[in-house]
Specification:
Elements: H1 3-19, H2 23-41, H3 45-62, H4 67-88, H5 94-111, H6 117-135, H7 143-154, H8 162-168, H9 173-184, H10 188-206, H11 211-217, H12 223-234, H13 238-243
Helix pairs in contact: 1-2, 1-4, 2-3, 3-4, 3-6, 4-5, 4-6
């Protein structure tokens, strides 16, 4: 969906509302949408979920008989709006923008039904914030550790080996392992695993890839080992996590004093 067509779709919807004598609703809609975008790009997930529910209520009240369709296509429009901003701010290149937008649309088309509008809205907010969080540069006090964290974040789907990472940053394996543990409270090996599990959660929820293919994509030696590791961090098997849209995401924040 192009930027211009998305803008036109949103404007057309609001123009109809205005013509039908609901200018206050239209103004509130725009206010809430701007608020929603600000909250998402500030990673304020709880506030964004609440704001999105307010938007859904406006759309539901506008066309109650067709609210499911209206809200469904608003979710598609919203994903395109987010995509354009990710692209405009150079967070995504053209290819990644396209992949991101398609992933959102596929998730909506595949999983959305009348009974889970709120849950899917929450999932989308979670996904938007997750993407943005992964693009933020870490702010630890050791610059090399910051660079290593960013390198892992950008290459999480690759085969990451500690010795090769150390060589890439021109430091010894022992030195890198020591300073990484000091500044993150987890080993480099465990952080690599943590980041893989975090990303895999979104492949399970937002794609139709087979679990065995996801395990292979992230270089787990076999599905049994992958299932065991995934459950260690999330408390659920990959299959259960995929089915349970109400389930929380596992998140790890690099902060002195954290422990697993």
């Amino acid at each position: 969906m192009t930027g211009k067509s998305t803008e036109a779709s949103t404007i057309d919807l609001i123009s109809i509302i205005e013509k039908e004598g609901n200018r206050e609703q239209a103004e509130l809609f725009f206010y809430l949408e701007n608020k929603l975008l600000t909250q998402i790009f500030n990673l304020e997930k709880d506030g964004a979920r609440s704001t999105l529910k307010e938007i859904e209520e406006i759309l539901d009240g506008y066309k109650s008989k067709h609210s499911f369709g209206v809200i469904k296509y608003y979710f598609v429009i919203l994903s395109s709006v987010i995509t354009r901003r990710l692209q405009k701010e150079s967070i995504f290149n053209d290819e990644n923008s396209f992949i991101f937008n398609v992933a959102c649309i596929e998730m909506i088309e595949t999983n959305l039904h009348r009974e889970n509008l709120v849950e899917i809205g929450d999932e989308l907010v979670e996904f938007y914030c997750y993407i943005l969080k992964g693009k933020l540069k870490p702010s630890l006090t050791h610059e090399t550790v910051n660079e290593v964290v960013q390198y892992i974040n950008e290459n999480v789907e690759k085969q990451l080996i500690v010795e090769e990472i150390a060589k890439h940053f021109n430091v010894s394996t022992s030195h890198l392992s020591r300073i990484f543990r000091e500044h993150t409270t987890v080993t480099l090996v465990e952080y690599i695993t943590i980041r893989k599990i975090e990303d895999i959660q979104f492949y399970l929820r937002f794609t139709n890839l087979k679990i065995v293919d996801i395990a292979e994509k992230f270089h787990f030696c076999n599905q049994s080992y992958f299932t065991r590791v995934f459950k260690k961090y999330t408390g659920l098997t990959p299959r259960r996590f995929r089915k349970d849209l109400d389930g929380n995401y596992f998140r790890f924040t690099i902060k002195k004093g954290d422990s697993l």
